Amino acid sequence: MNAPVRTPAAVTALDLTVNGRAVSRAVKPRTHLADFLREDLNLTGTHLGCEHGVCGACTVLLDGEPARSCLTFAAVCSGASVTTIEGLDDDELTAELRAAFTREHALQCGFCTPGMLVAARDLALRLPEPDERRIRVGLAGNLCRCTGYLGIVRAIQSVIAERRGRGVAPAAGERPLGSVGAHVGSERAAISRAADRTAAERSSPAVAVSEFVPAHTFEQRFTVAFPAEDVFALFGDVRAVADCLPGAFVEATPSPERIEGGIRVKLGPIAAAFRGAASVSRDEADRAGRILGAGADGRSGAQGEIRYRVIDDATPGISEVVLTVGYTLKGPLAQFGRPGLVRDVAGRLTADFARNLEDRLAGRDVPEDRGSQSSGLNPLRLVTGLLFGRLSSWLRRVRSRSSR
To answer: pTM for the full model?
Structure first.
């Protein structure tokens, strides 16, 4: 009997530069860059962890930009320049980061460290100042199971501070982005990026949700010990309103009808910032307004609408604010979006907001732990307060029944 004929697997010619050295190989089309570096070139400093592009242990530089080598096919890197952790042995900035990681105890088992150093180097090149929030956001794609990140963040902060103190300026201009091996610095890529930015501006969240239909809606009411016209006038100053809302911040006001900003959320050592844009409209005659916007933190997204109306209370000098809130949550955040929980948390948040409004109208400083200058909105604290409040209410009812 004749043996079956085996068709040789197709291969692709690959020519690229790895750590400054020209490399030519024949690879199978589905070979990942990480496997090619480790198995063909014996560059085992590139670690494989999740192999889903989540943990960041496989991060290398492609055309000077951090990229996941476990998700990148080697064949598409032809013509690209690849730098692994081994290629950074003589890099001055990487040497500073290695020393800082040692000094700040920023590594334990060391498995994540190669990818972490590649990401840290990129941050040290780009960030104008050692901003902890921006560093944590920049490291969001690099997971560490040992250190808790505090030492890593401090190490990067110290290197950035030292470099800026020596007069080393951050990398100028917007960081070029593009597909792997696309030579992103080319004129063609620049034209493509300009087109992408134009398209993004046309589809900004404030415009995209103009016909927004919320998944959930609820109403909140509170009173303020100031005349309705004063309260409504303050609502017209979006920065002043943001100062009164815990965790909120405004980054830009391109026009009276549009704001850009977000809200910072802090749960223990974990901090995130939801950034987006919103459209603002006001009806002076009815003392009413509407804020419609959308934002995201990279994994979760939210769309929301706040309609407000300021009316005169029966008591002179007192006004009532009626808020109608509609929202839709997407991503992991949606698991915390049960209407009852959101309504209860919003009630406690509204109470802080009302007190801050009164302080602002009275010319008093908003307490740091209640204003937007705090470390961020803390849902855990709000929910804990709710639970204690409900427990106290239940105990009072039990005592009342037992005393009868």
So the answer is: 0.47
The answer to the question of residue 404 being in a domain is no
Q: The domain that contains 242 carries what CATH number?
A: 3.30.530.20
pLDDT tens for 103-113 read 999 999 999 99
Domain count, the chain: 2
Is there a single domain that holds both residue 129 and residue 234? no
**Which positions ≥6 away from 236 have C-beta within 8 Å?**
282
Confidence of residue 41 (pLDDT cuts 50, 70, 90): very high
Mean pLDDT across the chain: 78
- Strands of 12-18's sheet, edge to edge? 21-27, 12-18, 81-83, 59-62, 65-68
What token pair was written down for 205? 């969240």
Reduce the DSSP state of residue 387 to 3 states and report it: helix
Q: Looking at this protein, which amino acid is placed at residue 359?
A: D
Question: Is 189 inside a domain boundary?
Answer: no
Give φ, ψ of 157 to 5 degrees: -60, -45
Q: What is the pLDDT of residue 218?
A: 79
Q: List the domain range (segments joined by +) for residue 215.
A: 205-397
Together in a domain, 325 and 218? yes
The per-residue pLDDT for range 243-265, each reduced to its tens digit, is 887 778 788 887 778 888 877 76
pLDDT at position 180 over 80: no
Per-residue pLDDT reduced to its tens digit, 192-226: 444 444 444 444 443 344 456 777 787 888 899 99
Q: Which of 88, 163, 152, 90 is closest to 125 using CA atoms?
A: 163
Residues in the chain: 404
Residues 157 and 76 in one domain: yes
CA dihedral 193, 196, 202, 207 (to 10 degrees): -110
Domain final position from 165, 193, 220: 165
pLDDT of residue 175: 52
Q: For residue 258, what is the DSSP state?
A: E
Which of 142, 165, 188 is the endpoint of a domain? 165
Q: Are 57 and 37 in contact, with CB atoms under 8 Å apart?
A: no
Residue 198 is assigned to a structural domain of this protein = no
Same domain, residue pair 32 and 108: yes
Euclidean distance between CA atoms 234 and 238, whole angstroms: 8
- With pLDDT > 90 as the criterion, what percentage of the chain qualifies? 38
Show Cβ contacts of residue 144 under 8 Å, excluding neighbours closer than 6 positions: 112, 116, 152
Contact 264, 247 (CB under 8 A): yes
CA distances from 7 to 10, 14, 28, 149, 240 (A): 9, 21, 14, 50, 71
